[in-house]
Specification:
Elements lengths: L3 H14 L2 E3 L6 E4 L6 H10 L6 E4 L10 H14 L4 E3 L16 H4 L3 H11 L5 E4 L3 E4 L20 H8 L1 E2 L16 E2 L1 H11 L3 E4 L8 E2 L4 E3 L12 E5 L12 E4 L1
Parallel strand pairs: 1-5, 2-3, 3-4, 6-9, 7-8, 9-11
Antiparallel strand pairs: 2-12, 5-6, 10-11, 12-13
The structure holds manganese (II) ion.
Length: 258
């Protein structure tokens, strides 16, 4: 298990940086989709894009599904502790077990009660989103219905806006909101995207969470990444946003197989 001193240090760092990470426009940024217990995927990303030279934004869902959740999470937390300004670990729904449990959750359900509590509470400090001045927002699921981008920093855990961020799905087509259905995943269409992105002042959303959805949605302004072999048949990809490149569409980011 990850020791308490490391978790305490993590919480200090996360408290300082807040829920909304401001990325610099002067460095290339690498966005990484769900790794879901695929430690090898994270190793490859860190090897191909060392945090000493790159800014890395992981989009959440580090545990469950794959073969080595604890190994993957440990590797990610060590990278964060070693490079706090270059490695950003956003919250996915699988990191929010302590607020909203779900099933199946093989990693969480196998922890001892004390480990579950310590790790569950520490991960509740993870940021919700990262904003890049080229007009790119990164988060796990869907855009929250808030007044402007800065408001994301104040979204309460467990709220409807938080559920959109960590659990939200997109459909491939027009429409506004499709409710949450039996899955509990709030679902949105391209009309909601256009209106909300305009209000938040963003051109492109980079997210993960839905392994089977088309890579480009919402007039090529919504990019979905998956970076894990946990489901067996997906291509592990990251997206690179080059410094000072104008971003008009999600296709202006470079997709790289790892
Ligand atoms: Mn997810």
């Amino acid at each position: 298990m990850i020791d308490t001193a490391r978790l305490a240090r993590l919480r200090e760092i996360l408290e300082r940086e807040g829920r909304l990470i401001g990325l610099s426009g002067n460095r290339a940024v690498v966005f990484v989709g769900d790794t879901h217990g695929d430690r090898e995927a994270t190793e490859r990303v860190l090897g191909m894009f060392p945090p000493s030279d790159h800014v890395l934004v992981f989009l959440g869902d580090y545990v469950d599904r794959g073969p080595d959740s604890l190994g993957n999470l440990t590797l990610l937390l060590e990278a964060k502790l070693a490079h706090p300004d270059s490695v950003h670990l956003l919250m996915g729904n699988h990191e929010a077990w302590a607020v909203r449990p779900f099933s199946p959750a093989d990693f969480w359900q196998e922890l001892s009660p004390s480990d579950e509590e310590a790790l569950g509470n520490a991960l509740l400090g993870l940021p919700f989103a990262a904003y890049h001045p080229a007009g790119v927002l990164a988060l796990h699921g869907a855009l929250p219905d808030v007044g402007d981008a800065a408001e994301i920093a104040r979204v309460p855990l467990g709220s409807a806006e938080w559920r959109a961020i960590t659990w939200g799905d997109w459909v491939d087509g027009p429409g506004y909101s499709f409710g949450s259905g039996v899955s509990g995943r709030p679902t949105f269409g391209a009309d909601y995207f256009a209106e909300t992105a305009s209000r938040l002042g963003i051109q492109v959303l980079v997210r993960s969470h839905q392994p089977a959805v088309p890579t480009f949605l919402c007039d090529d302004r919504c990019l979905t990444l998956f970076t894990s072999n946990a489901y067996g048949d997906t291509t592990r990809r990251v997206a690179v946003l080059r410094a000072r490149r104008p971003i008009l569409s999600a296709r202006d980011l470079d997709l790289v197989e790892i």
